[in-house]
Amino acid sequence: MNQKTVTLNTGAKMPVIGLGTYLCEPMPGKVTAAVKKAITVGYRHIDAALYYLNEDEVGKGIQEGLKETGIKREDIFVTTKLWNHHHRPECVAGALEQSLKKLYKAGKAKAIGVSNFTIDLIEDLLKKAEIKPAVNQVEDNPYLPQHKLVKYCQDNGIQVTAYCPLGRASTPSLHDDPVIKEIAKKNNMTTAQVILSWNAQRNVIVIPKSVTPSRIEENFKIAELPQEDFDKIQAITFRHRTHNPFNLFPDNGDF
To answer: Per 3-state DSSP, what percentage of the chain is helix, strand, and coil (rounded to 5)?
Structure first.
């Protein structure tokens, strides 16, 4: 399942597992090394944003990873984002210029998407937008599975990308969940591999963040879970959100 991709509504192929770079502090060399490691391990999807303040390092990591592996730039799917204050028409070109140049001229966009959009927001957008978004990036993990939103997006040809797919290290931790731990032990997997495999099995893209080489490699080794184990995770009822978009957006709905 490592090289599994989903086909976006533009026809582009997007790898199901990518490396997240949010909250990866721009410490000299750390993010560069993480991105390079990810590419050498086999990742072909890097998630970034100008807002993360580390795209210089992300770009260097991509360049070094390409040199190390001999693969071409077009083999890497890069996601970047414009923060809210860059959405005005007069700002978009400049923000894209900054963002894409820092990723070493990432080239033409394969698709455009949104983040933290509720069903109501998507429905409103579809009434007005000339181009349907290809992706909606939201928090998604076994403690916040977004079942209704994921189904709506997939039924409407919009792919879902899960940020915080492993939750956060703070309590309550997904890695301490008895169901997750039981499945990990049964299948000789880490808890992270179980959690990521579950979401990938739902055709949800995952972008786990790490700058630790061993974890970057570990997170890439996902697999198909037995159906009974997949169903057990689906049945988890505990809910916990690590990020609250309601602080940014007043609209009610399932993020």
So the answer is: 45, 15, 45
Q: What is the mean pLDDT of residues 82-107?
A: 50
The β-bridge partners of 17 are 206
Residue found under tokens 């080489």: 213
Q: Could you give the residue numbers annotated as active site?
A: 52
Phi, psi (deg, nearest 5) at residue 199: -70, -40
DSSP three-state, residue 209: strand
Predicted structure pTM score? 0.86
Query: If pLDDT is split at 50, 70 and 90, which confidence band does 104 have?
Result: very low
CB contact at 8 A, 47 and 92:
no
Kind plus residue range of the DSSP H or E element containing 160? strand 159-163
Q: Give the CA distances from residue 138 to residues 13, 113, 115, 149, in Å, rounded to whole numbers and listed in that order.
A: 19, 11, 6, 10
Give the pLDDT confidence of 54-64 residue by residue, as tens digits: 778 888 999 99
Tokens of 218: 């570990």
> What's the maximum distance between 2 C-alpha atoms anywhere in the chain?
55
DSSP string, 19-77: EE-TT----TTHHHHHHHHHHHHT--EEE--GGGT-HHHHHHHHHHHHHHH---GGGSE
Hey, what domains does the chain have and what are their CATH numbers? 5-247 (3.20.20.100)
Least confident of 7-11, 22-26, 224-228, 248-252: 248-252
Comparing 50 with 158, the larger pLDDT belongs to 158
